[in-house]
Design a protein that fits this description.
12 helices; single chain; Double-GTPase 2 domain-containing protein; DO-GTPase2; 8-stranded mixed sheet; alpha/beta; coiled coil; 424 residues
């Protein structure tokens, strides 16, 4: 994996669930999350970034009863024109990797989406390193008569979250997966359901049973060691609570919330948690590849060093032979020209001299080439070690701040979500 290789994260949910709101809550934590890890970021302005900023602006100024809604991401004429939100990560002014968050229109995930939209989602799922699945926690946790009981599934869960559709899309995409992947199930609008540890654990349980088919699929023999799965609730607004629901004449159910207190500010909570796990996973994958590169480069360095010593010995022997041929030629050239001409007829000393001279020059050029390769390989080893050290340090900080209780859980794939020991 090259130092600036792009790593891709895809937001996966149907329209209106809150993909952009979740991205906004994550984006709110970007600066301090990376600063604490001693990492630098370089962010490019894109339509997705502007949509995130617009989303945050709406939520920050939203009315007490949350009447104003964030405009869902609109379908594009050509889905491939969506650049997503991307930024580069590095240390000490050096860029090491690029991350791209893609937030496609929820309509692309519909069964009746246009063929080019379906193909776009299929390829994105096949190519992305991580997917984030926002889950409407209210739809998951509420029924018509109140909150669900233990083991029940919310009345509007399938209508809003469409877990069966999401499950099938991921089954199709991951049936022949080769590289490590991360799946984050992120309950959002969950302020009402995370007030206490008991509430949060109940939310976690509901996610597990409601997405049981998908989680069982990830536990299959072919995926258990390749797919990491994490559940990370995010309070995308903060200081709000579920109030009631209304179903209109078209049988569409809308959920209503209100701020607590009424003048509460925009204060998302745990928006950094999906980001932490994404970075833990991607950096671990990045480091795994870097360690393989480092191992190969060190082997190459040892081989070149041995080859350099061998060729230098050969050059010394060639130089000695050249000096001897030069001595014999000089001795011949110092003879009287008549005797020299006769001697040259029986013993040519000029041709061997030039042959050996050419061999010496070729060996010198060969050694120069090996030395260039050696320096290049040495530079790669040093640069790779520098990257590994920088990201090992970052992993420590990301790992120490990651939650794994009170509604948060690593379901599988711990090896991709921990900080490694030093490899030196």
């Amino acid at each position: 994996m090259n130092g600036t290789e792009e790593l891709k994260i895809l937001m996966v949910a149907l329209r209106g669930i809150g993909k952009t709101s979740l991205l906004a809550a994550m984006h709110e934590e970007f600066n301090k999350t990376f600063e604490r890890a001693n990492l630098q970021t370089w962010i490019d302005d894109t339509n997705t970034l502007r949509a995130i900023e617009e989303c945050k602006s709406i939520i920050k100024n939203i009315d007490p009863r949350l009447q104003k809604q964030v405009t869902p991401t609109q379908p594009k004429e050509n889905p491939w024109n969506d650049q997503g939100f991307y930024f580069e990560i590095g240390s000490s002014g050096k860029k090491f990797m690029q991350l791209r968050f893609t937030d496609p229109s929820g309509e692309y995930f519909n069964p009746d989406a246009a063929p080019e939209q379906k193909e776009y989602i299929k390829r994105q799922l096949n190519e992305c390193d991580a997917v984030v699945i926002p889950i409407d926690a209210t739809a998951l946790m509420q029924k018509k008569t109140g909150r669900v009981s233990h083991g029940e599934i919310g009345t509007w869960h399938e209508e809003k979250n469409n877990s069966q559709r999401i499950t099938q899309l991921l089954k199709d995409a991951y049936s022949h997966v080769e590289s490590p992947r991360l799946v984050i199930l992120a309950p959002i609008k969950c302020e009402t359901y995370t007030r206490t540890s008991r509430d949060a654990e109940s939310l976690l349980y509901q996610v597990k049973i409601s997405y049981g088919e998908l989680l069982d699929f990830f536990k299959s023999d072919s995926l258990i060691n390749k797919v990491a799965v994490v559940i990370t609730p995010v309070q995308t607004i903060g200081n709000v609570t579920f109030s009631h629901y209304k179903t209109d004449e078209n049988n569409f159910t809308k959920f209503y919330y209100h701020k607590t207190p009424i003048n509460a500010p925009y204060q998302p909570k745990d928006g950094e948690q999906p980001l932490r796990y994404i970075l833990l996973f991607l950096i671990n994958v990045f480091l795994e590849n870097k360690k393989q590169i480092l191992h190969k480069e060190k082997e190459s360095l040892e081989r070149l060093e041995l080859e350099l010593c061998t060729e230098k010995d050969k050059l010394e022997n060639a130089k000695k032979e050249f000096e001897e041929k030069q001595r014999l030629l000089n001795e011949r050239n110092n003879m009287w020209w008549v005797f020299r001409t006769i001697a040259n007829l029986f013993d040519d000393r000029e041709s061997p001299y030039y042959t050996v001279k050419e061999q010496v020059e070729q060996k010198q050029a060969g050694i120069q080439e090996i030395q260039t390769s050696f320096q290049s390989s040495l530079f790669k080893v040093q640069a790779t070690q520098e990257q590994i050290n920088a990201f090992n340090n970052a992993l420590l900080r990301f790992a120490f701040g990651s939650k794994n209780s009170d509604g948060f859980a690593i379901i599988q794939g711990h090896k991709w979500l921990e900080f490694p020991q030093s490899i030196f």
